């Protein structure tokens, strides 16, 4: 009896029917690593992170210092050509509290971008594994359809033998011929499903067109530990998800931006330092300080405050949307995983052996004349249907594990 305590999918199929070297194999881990390293959207996110990490340097509220030269009281008198000469350095800065809130907000945005990248990496890994599982399923489906063709051929041979001996009739022979042609059609269709799965995988990992060769072989072992994931456990990790943490970072950033907007009612500061010359050299020093007065509050500061408040409200609704979507996806993956797991276990426990025995017994009984063709066809359909139902359930089982990997801090398929 095979249980899913440590279940594995083992397959070895070369698309051209030949054996190639190890450099032709594409394992699931290689596919994931290639996708994460070459995904265009992910690399754009990484570039945006570098931009965001350096954005605070341009938002400290400290402007470039201004150096100026001033000359006053210019006259034609050679003994007193001027009243004062001045060399000044002027520096303008935002109110310190404003700069502090702005920099804190930008740091939260950096953390948000980091979490977005982690979430995207998890999503890409899940997508690649799902596509890889589709290839595995297509390979097994092709093998199943080959088995179906063999059964149809055995059926035709049995019917033809009875027809030749005069124990059968022409109707049964035509029926057997149709069953054989249908099996050939199904096998041809399975080849298209396999190619569709292959190119779907190549596309999601970003494999260059010149490297998408028929010589690529899929030879690997997929392992999945049969884990008992309770519904409460799966849903309890929502607040630990990178996408949710990113939304929290953005919400925190909006708080700091709102405080920054409110702090704009405080005056910015302007400092000036002078070296003064009254005709005897630069022997005097001067100092000036200025404060900006926010007299245009109804237009400037109030507008910034209202914009920051609306931005915070937008992020609150966005966070709710993330929570609802996450709960739906976890619920769907968990329930589908549970159902698929039960079907796979049930097939291994009893259905596989029973349906195989039913098929072989029915063929023998037909050859001995104990049952008619209809009963034999029914037995074969039961056998094929149970096998293909098992393959579909096995695919869904792995697909849901791949989906759950996005939300659980552990690798379920490797």
From TrEMBL:
<keyword id="KW-0998">Cell outer membrane</keyword>
<keyword id="KW-0812">Transmembrane</keyword>
<dbReference type="GO" id="GO:0009279">
    <property type="term" value="C:cell outer membrane"/>
</dbReference>
<dbReference type="GO" id="GO:1990281">
    <property type="term" value="C:efflux pump complex"/>
</dbReference>
<protein>
    <submittedName>
        <fullName>TolC family protein</fullName>
    </submittedName>
</protein>
<dbReference type="GO" id="GO:0015288">
    <property type="term" value="F:porin activity"/>
</dbReference>
<dbReference type="InterPro" id="IPR051906">
    <property type="entry name" value="TolC-like"/>
</dbReference>
<keyword id="KW-1134">Transmembrane beta strand</keyword>
<dbReference type="GO" id="GO:0015562">
    <property type="term" value="F:efflux transmembrane transporter activity"/>
</dbReference>
<keyword id="KW-0472">Membrane</keyword>
């Amino acid at each position: 009896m095979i249980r899913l305590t440590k279940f594995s999918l083992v397959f070895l199929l070369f698309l051209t029917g030949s054996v190639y070297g190890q450099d032709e194999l594409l394992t699931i881990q290689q596919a994931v690593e290639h996708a994460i390293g070459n995904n265009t959207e992910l690399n754009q996110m990484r570039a945006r992170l570098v931009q965001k990490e350096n954005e605070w340097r341009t938002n400290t509220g400290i402007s470039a210092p201004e150096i100026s030269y001033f000359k006053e009281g210019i006259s034609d008198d050679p003994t007193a050509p001027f009243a004062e000469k001045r060399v000044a350095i002027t520096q303008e800065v935002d109110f310190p509290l404003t700069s502090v809130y702005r920099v804190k907000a930008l740091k939260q945005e950096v953390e948000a971008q980091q979490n977005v990248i982690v979430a995207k990496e998890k999503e890409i890994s899940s997508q690649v594994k799902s596509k890889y599982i589709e290839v595995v399923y297509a390979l097994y489906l092709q093998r199943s359809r080959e088995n179906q063709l063999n059964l149809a051929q055995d059926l035709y041979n049995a019917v033809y033998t009875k027809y030749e001996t005069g124990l059968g009739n022409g109707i049964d022979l035509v029926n057997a011929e149709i069953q054989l042609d249908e099996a050939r059609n199904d096998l041809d269709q399975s080849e298209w499903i396999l190619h569709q799965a292959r190119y779907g995988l190549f596309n999601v990992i970003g494999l260059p067109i010149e490297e998408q060769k028929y010589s690529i072989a899929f030879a690997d072992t997929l392992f999945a530990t049969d884990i008992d994931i309770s519904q409460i456990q799966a849903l309890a990790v929502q607040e630990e998800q990178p996408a949710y943490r990113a939304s929290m970072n953005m919400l925190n950033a909006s708080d700091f931006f709102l405080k920054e907007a409110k702090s704009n009612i405080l005056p910015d500061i302007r400092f000036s330092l002078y070296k003064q010359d009254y005709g005897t050299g630069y022997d005097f020093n001067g100092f000036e300080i200025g404060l900006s007065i926010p007299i245009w509050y109804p237009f400037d500061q109030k507008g910034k405050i209202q914009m920051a408040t609306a931005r915070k409200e937008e992020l609150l609704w966005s966070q709710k949307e993330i929570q609802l979507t996450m709960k739906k996806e976890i619920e769907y993956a968990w329930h589908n995983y549970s159902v698929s797991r039960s079907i796979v276990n049930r097939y291994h426990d009893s259905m596989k052996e029973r349906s195989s025995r039913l098929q072989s017994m029915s063929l023998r009984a037909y050859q001995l004349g104990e049952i008619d063709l209809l009963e034999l066809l029914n037995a074969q359909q039961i056998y094929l249907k149970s096998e293909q139902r098992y393959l579909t359930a096995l695919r869904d089982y792995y697909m849901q594990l791949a989906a759950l990997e996005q939300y659980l801090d552990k690798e379920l398929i490797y």
